[in-house]
Specification:
By secondary structure, the chain is of the alpha+beta class. It has one domain (about 25-95). The protein is about 40% helix and about 10% strand. It is built from four helices and two strands, in the order ααααββ. The chain has helices at about 25-35, 40-50, 50-60, 65-75; strands at about 80-85, 90-95. Strands 1-2 form a two-stranded antiparallel ribbon. Strand 1 and strand 2 form a beta hairpin. The longest helix has 12 residues, at about 40-50. The protein is flat.
């Protein structure tokens, strides 16, 4: 039977689990092909951005996953500061400086 034609852009087809990774894939596509969550992939990329000796130092002193990720993001310039704002009016409540 003839299905009614849908209007608009067709849905993106994500890769299946186990499909090969190719250049130009989005992080969402990579996570789908690897069978992991996007949060796990982002954390792994943050950990991989640290030099190996610095990463091993952090593990030796017993740093938590959150602390290691904060150090990695600080080195990349992604967490120079955090601004906490009031959800209703946008007023700045406090500013936390990064490492």
């Amino acid at each position: 039977m003839n299905e009614p034609r849908r209007r608009g852009r067709p849905r993106k087809v994500r890769p299946k689990l186990g499909d090969p990774l190719v250049p130009g894939m989005s992080q969402r596509d990579i996570a789908a092909a690897m069978g992991c969550t996007r949060r796990y992939l982002a954390r792994a990329l943050d950990f991989a951005s640290l030099p190996e000796d610095h990463f091993n130092e952090l593990l030796a002193v017993g740093a938590s996953k959150g602390e290691i990720r904060f150090v990695a993001r600080s080195r990349a310039g992604k967490t120079a500061q955090r601004v906490r704002r009031c959800p209703c009016c946008g007023y700045v409540l406090w500013v936390e400086r990064g490492v």
